[in-house]
Amino acid sequence: MALALAIAVPVAWVLLASLKGKSEFFGSPWTLPKGLHLQNYADAFVTAHMGQYFLTSVFVTVLGLVLVLAVSVPAAYVIARYEFRGRRLVEIALLAGLFVNVNYIVVPIFLMLVDWDRALIDVFPGGFFIDNPAVLSLVYAATSIPFTIYLLTAYFRSIPVEYEEAAALDGASRFRIMVQVMLPMARPAVTTVILFDFLAYWNDFIIALTLLPGEGKTLQVGLLNLFTAQKAAADYGRLYAGMVIVIVPVLLLYAFIQRRLIEGIASGGVKG
């Protein structure tokens, strides 16, 4: 209960602050807003370009999730269910990837992408890899593959093999077994990795700041710019409106998938 209040109270405070007028911030910070100053949201979306940053973040996050799931689901299934030469080495490499913090290697990634842009300067004079939201999504997906495969592999291994054998007797191909049998049964694990990867992509600041130095910023970087601008102008209502824009998608996603997330954590697999 105390932990829930520790989270709910600041969120409620930010929401109420986003509805206050400029003059109301010079009194007590705990007073309720005198009116619904929805103009704060309009100013944040349009004037502060938070709407543009929001769309960029949605694009980067969704594309990153699609890429990481497209690679991780088949890879995790193969590692969990098939014997092949070098499988143990692949698992060790993936486990090692869990201990690499992407924030520590963002500078080498940036320099590598800059070199690639230099090599392709005749084809893409304006650059291709730097300041490209799709490339940022690819970096997100690539750096989260070890965690995603590790979690999905553990769940696939907990599913009894009898389900696959029954589907194979009915003439189902390996791909069909993975998509129509294994993937639905692993839905709690897939939901879990979607939530964790979504939070990692949506809340990222350092990588987005480094790889998107131009105008196409993500929401987190745009919020920093808004904070700097509104702090000088003492227009805190617009700043808190920007914070709400950042928070709301996370709360909506968690509210939508919380039951499946709890099932995935509690069950730990399908019991035979």
TrEMBL record:
The organism's place on the tree of life at top rank: Bacteria
Keywords tagged on the record: Cell membrane, Membrane, Transmembrane, Transmembrane helix, Transport
InterPro entries per record: BP-dep_ABC_trans_perm (IPR050901), MetI-like (IPR000515), MetI-like_sf (IPR035906)
Keyword Transcription regulation assigned: no
Pfam family, one: BPD_transp_1
Any GO CC annotation of this UniProt entry: plasma membrane
GO biological process terms on file: transmembrane transport
Bilayer topology annotation: Multi-pass membrane protein
TM region positions: 53-80, 92-114, 134-156, 239-257
CDD domains: TM_PBP2
SUPFAM superfamilies: MetI-like
Compartment(s): Cell membrane
Stretches assigned to the ABC transmembrane type-1 domain: 54-257
PROSITE patterns in UniProt: ABC_TM1 (PS50928)
Family of this protein: Belongs to the binding-protein-dependent transport system permease family.
The name this protein goes by in its record: Carbohydrate ABC transporter permease
Species the sequence originates in: Streptomyces sporangiiformans
